[in-house]
Amino acid sequence: MPSAVGPIFIPTIDFSKFTQGSVSERAECCELLRDSLSTHGFARVINSGIPDEDIDRCFQFADEFFQMTLDAKQRIANVAGPTPQRGWSHLGAERSSSLYSSLVKTKVVNQRSDSREHWDQGHEEDTIFPNKWPSEDDIIGFRPFMQSFYKSCEGISLQLLEALELAMELSPMTLQSRIHNASELRMNHYPPINVKSLHEGSISRIWPHFDLGVLTMLWTAGSSGLEFQNRLDTDGKSFIPVVPISQYEMILNISETLQRWTNDVLPAGLHQVTTPPNLKGASEGVIPDRLSIAYFCKANRETSVGTLPSFVHPVEGAKYEDITALEYHQSRLKTAY
Ligand SMILES: O=C(O)CCC(=O)C(=O)O
Ligand SMILES: [Fe+2]
Q1: Angle at 72 between CA 206 and CA 124, to 5 degrees
Q2: Coiled-coil ranges per the record (predicted)?
Q3: Could you tell me the distance, in angstroms and rounded to a whole number, from the CA of residue 252 to the centre of ligand 2?
Q4: Measured from the CA of 190, which atom of ligand 1 is nearest?
Q5: How far is the CA of 219 from the centre of ligand 2 (A)?
Q6: Residue 209 alpha carbon to ligand 2 centre in Å
Q7: 206 Cβ closer than 6 Å to some ligand 1 atom
Q8: Which residues contact 312 (CB under 8 A, 6 or more apart)?
Q9: In DSSP terms, which residues pair with 88 in a beta bridge?
Q10: What atom of ligand 1 comes closest to residue 294's alpha carbon?
Q11: Single pTM value for the model
């Protein structure tokens, strides 16, 4: 089912064709996924396999979480720095613009901040970087629900990787076997903001950036503002607004690790959250609150994020050196604080 995104058509991919379809539907789904991801850096997916009511519930919890008192949030504050993020990060804590400028080695534009607070959660069995849970008195039922939502996302992310392995004719488990315990679930809250403040240029909801992991699965409850770099544009300066066709649509993007593993065959999708299309030309007005949920499927910490043997170019070799995922993430994250 094609859907319009500005002048560019991005197919909406029905993932149930992969999980429940015939042999030919499965193959077609894998190809659509690979083509959308390799052309645009992202794909639009429906019927991901997460029940709609769980997505609704997760957004309700996100709403409750960010409405907790400042004290309750501060008790579970993330310690800013290069270690995997856990707990609550205050408005503007992470600077996505520095994350990007450090990668492409452009000069950091000072004072560019993100008008966003967020919550990060790791794998339950991660004893090195344990989760920081709010108390049951502050938010009832949050922990068991979020633990089970994380597990559902983990299962879907492995199915998506399996589909990519098939589409790219990789040996089974090439990608899946490299994922274990380091993925992260994030909830973002963007408070209401004046259009004027966004247009002025020092604040964005989130500045253009790449995610660090392998793949990101994102839900935005149908709200707009998310944009991906338009790669079909010759100077690469324009962005494609992504307005979901339903509140359950999942936006899938390629992140830095998969770009490295595939030696740039699947380049990461540059994205940002900014003024929604209907307010682009406005000089006045307030953009309402926005919530999003992102599951960052990440490589196992000890796994190399260097080019995988099957992607090493026969003449030019590997573009990306062997370095563990933990070292890589830490070197990247320290630029964002
Ligand atoms: O809120 C969104 O739509 C995108 C969030 C995002 O890019 C991120 O958390 O890395
Ligand atoms: Fe992102």
Answers
A1: 75
A2: none
A3: 10
A4: 1
A5: 11
A6: 6
A7: yes
A8: 263, 318
A9: 77, 119
A10: 9
A11: 0.95
Q: Give me 175's structure tokens.
A: 């990608």
* DSSP state for residue 134 in the 8-state scheme: P
Check residue 25 and report its DSSP letter. H
Amino acid (one-letter) located at 113:
S
User: 188-235 pLDDT, tens per residue?
Assistant: 999 999 999 988 888 999 999 999 999 999 999 999 999 999 998 888
Residue 268 CB–ligand 1 contact under 6 Å:
no
Q: Which residues are CB-neighbours of 110 under 8 A, at least 6 positions away? A: none
- Residue type for position 213: G
* 116 ligand 1 Cβ < 6 A: no
| Cα–Cα dist 44/42, whole Å | 7
End-to-end Cα distance, the chain: 41
3, burial (CB in 10 Å: exposed 0-12, middle 13-18, buried 19+): middle
Contacts of 184 (CB under 8 A, 6+ apart): 84, 85, 120, 121, 122, 213, 295, 296, 298
Per DSSP, the chain holds a count of helices (H) and strands (E) of: 9, 17
Could you tell me the distance, in angstroms and rounded to a whole number, from the CA of residue 317 to the centre of ligand 1?
33
**For residue 272, which atom of ligand 1 is closest to its CA?**
7
Q: 114 forms bridges with which residues in the sheet? A: 204
Q: Determine the Cα angle at 336 with ends 331 and 337, to 5°.
A: 105
Residue that is written with structure tokens 């935005």 in the block? 220
Is the ipTM of this structure higher than 0.90? yes
State the Cα–Cα distance between residues 92 and 240, nearest whole angstrom: 24
| CB of residue 218 inside a 6 A radius of ligand 1 | yes
Q: State the Cα–Cα distance between residues 98 and 39, nearest whole angstrom.
A: 26
Q: Is the Cβ–Cβ distance between 230 and 8 less than 8 Å? A: yes
Rounded to an integer, what distance in angstroms lies between the CA atom of residue 201 and that of residue 159?
40
Q: What pLDDT, in 10s, does the model give residues 58-99? A: 999 999 999 999 999 999 999 988 899 999 999 988 888 887
